[in-house]
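hey can u run this one w/ zinc ion bound, need the structure tokens asap thx
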Amino acid sequence: MADIIDQAQEQAERILQAELSAQRAAGPEATGYCLACGEAVARGMRWCNVMCRDDYQRMEAARRRNGN
Ligand SMILES: [Zn+2]
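ok here u go:
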């Protein structure tokens, strides 16, 4: 039984780590300003609202589709 639990925990940790590194890779750094419209935002925030975030992600997706 212990083996199964260990394996499950190990797997859960691997998945969590993969998700965390994927988020880091996908996410731009917080600069203190909204990455979409340039408004000042709270420390650690990257957008002033979800619309700006969606805008930014749409621009990013379009940029990736264009091959860079
Ligand atoms: Zn904004």
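The helical segments are 2-26, 50-65. anyway lmk if its weird
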